[in-house]
Amino acid sequence: MKNTQKLMKSKTVLRLLTVPILALAFNCAENDLSDENLLVSPNVTISSTNAQTIQAENFDGMKGIKTESTSDSGGGSNVGWIDSGDYLEYALTVPASGSYKFEFRVASKSNASKFDFYQGNTKLSNVNKTATGGYQTWITTSKTVNLSAGTSTLKLLATGGGWNINWIKITPVSVSQATESDNLALGKTAEQSSNYSSNSGLAGLAIDGNTSGVWNQGSVTHTSNSASPWWQVRLGNDYTIGDIVIWNRTDCCSSRLSNFDVFVYNDAGTEVYKKTITSTPSPSTIVSTGGVTGSRVRIKLKGTNALSLAEVQVFSGESDGGGGTTNPPTGNASIPSDLMSNCNQWKITYPDGEEDKTLCGEDNNEYFFVNSAKNGMVFRAPIRSNNGTTPNSDYVRSELRERTEDGKSDIYWTTDGTHVVYVKQAITHLPIEKNHLVATQIHGDKAAGIDDAMVLRLEGSKLFLSFNGNKLRSDVTVKSNYSLGTVHEVIFEVKNGKHYCYYSENGDLRSKYLNGTASSYLVKDGSNSVLMDIDYDQSYFKIGNYTQSNAEEEGSSTGNSNNYGEVVVYDFFVDHD
Question: What whole-number distance in Å separates Cα of residue 247 and Cα of residue 229?
């Protein structure tokens, strides 16, 4: 008989994220265990800055699982025995929205490790990891997803059986550091165009600090069904506004909140910001204003319908003074691996030609170090007479190369499936004579004539995409007037041979991409967002600084202390599906 267990626990809203212990359900080895072997632990607090490892046997509720001793490093127990359709649910409280990397330590003899995971009714992602060859032969697989703030249920639903899990590691990747104390709207004056009734759905329910989207819980606004209904909050004074977080109704009718405008007005009544949202918040969406000054926030539907809001949070922020570019906040990293979610997954090649495959805990050096703000990894490649490089290259680099997640070997993938690299970076310095540099690239099968398949390249102030030096197709301009030091986000996406690129200097590309709303940031060739459609293998991603110069190119400038290429990387991830 399948196990079904539900554990009642108290919930506490914590500084960033409280997750009653995650666990997954699986089928595994030969020995059968009794229900009494199932273990439950207290809630786990996830840090806003550090990774937290959770043992899989510590669950909140489940159907169908049992535990056994594990031979994986660290010992203890792993979870097993699952069939397709089994599930686990976890009470989840997230005071701050953002993206988080989930790493799952899984093993299977012959079946793929397959499951979907959800927050409420929203599917976050799926895992489909090929068999490892044994129930105690372990591998780590990862997914980066967006979690929305508020109280909800995390559900893990098995879509296949015959696999085990030992632990889950959750790492915050890009998380708002704002707290309720920074919420400018909380308890202020709210108004709406009409009321559904005289005693329910009133405007003030969207600024009561409760993000629940269930109508019967008494914290959802509701106008009458009318043309262009609106809701607004008056903050009392002009403030610097950063993010506006809009929470939707969740028990029904969520599609009503779509195709709407978000306005910010200053104390003089002048419109200082407007953004149109065409998608439906599920359950929330973040609008990043870039640091405008205003005293009133208004949300207005474009069509005829009723407007319902669970909560509207208006967080204070700092203007970056850079035309919309969001500069990363000061951090607390001391060495580069502090800024890497999996330091085993990368190796680096230095400008002297040396290769380093052991980056975890590695000290700063002159080519690879943490910046003064402690929030970025600096990749520096000075031009010197004793430079070295990789085979088949004439140029110098301080550049990461992708490896398998366990770090045991270099990774190679084909263009089948979906492959994504995201980087938040700034190109900060170019060589003196030949001022060319590559930052972020897809490397392909060199033997097939596909080497630097798609790269982001800067020559002077021209930022563009190059496709193996025009051998695969012509260049595509991203920006003709890039200024050194401009922080930008770039995503390379390969879907079954089709190559896409996203680019933004607004600071919200990552969150929009994970929410499926980043289409406005697609780099296009005319009207075509598919920049290249070609199949190849022997592929991998590279991140950092590939300076396109050397001592011969630089001539008498070689050895000049100001002659180097430099890139600062603030955030990055890769994903393969």
Answer: 17
